[in-house]
Amino acid sequence: MLNRIGHLGTSLLERFLPSADADALRCITRCNAEGYWQDWCCDNNGRNCRWYGEPSLSHC
């Protein structure tokens, strides 16, 4: 999926993913340190952020 949406960058690309404790994570696709698109997710408070899932095959 990231391969198809990676070229859109971070603008307007947000979605909500449910977590195990029923709190929503706010995720946005960003360029990671290795230069690939990957989901960056934070909790509703904007804290506890981490990379989520596997990086795409597309460079950013």
Layout of helices and strands:
Layout lengths: L1 H4 L8 E5 L5 E8 L5 E6 L7 E3 L8
Antiparallel strand pairs: 1-2, 2-3, 3-4
Features:
disordered N terminus, 1 helix, mainly beta, four-stranded antiparallel β-sheet, 60 residues
Could you characterize what this model shows?
- With 60 residues, this protein is mostly beta strands.
- The protein is 7% helix and 37% strand.
The ordered string of helix (H) and strand (E) elements is HEEEE
C-alpha geometry: elongated
Cα separation of the termini: 15 Å
The helix count comes to: 1
Coarse structural class: mainly beta
Question: Cα-atom Rg, whole angstroms?
Answer: 11 Å
Biggest sheet strand order reads 1-2-3-4
Low-pLDDT stretches: 3-19
Strand content: 35-45%
Question: Helical percent range?
Answer: under 10%
- The chain-level mean pLDDT equals 74
- Note the main sheet: 4 strands, antiparallel
